[in-house]
Amino acid sequence: METLSGLWLPILISAILAFVASSLIWMVVGYHKADWKGLPNEPAVLDTLGKQSLSPGQYVFPHAKDAKAMKEPAFVEKMKKGPVGHIVVRPAGEFNMGRTLSLWFVYLLLVSAAVAFVTAQALPAGAAYMRVFRVAGGAAVAAYALGNLPKSIWWGHTWSSTVKEVVDGIVYGLLTAGTFGWLWPR
Question: Is residue 181 a contact partner of residue 133, using CB atoms and an 8 Å limit?
């Protein structure tokens, strides 16, 4: 069994490769551009939301405080009439891309460390490339791809955008698997 400290190189390299791949997918390939739409009358919506003095957080509409309230006729009517949705309100101001990319890279490192842990539990030093690839790949694809499914199941994201994110996750997972297979201790 390998230790995580002995797997620092595949952890780091796989996180870097996934970071580069995600950057290319989102900024060069651009197939996610159609996943988000603008509002038909954005100025009016922004004006209305601005008057609410919303603090950063997650909001649902219509809102019911509990399961009992969800059965009340007025709430049922609001759901039928619509609109129905969720919004996330961020702090006002410029989007901090540097902070967000840094947090994304930390996430990639955490996934790679988890993949290292699982793979090290399953395989000894000297394991064949394809054995390492399969174990690391299974863990990495599960981590990167499957977590996207609840977005459509629970939160109403379009299935087309979720499927694209699953495909992205498979790419990141395969890069991680290849890195671990390549750099697995001999």
Answer: yes
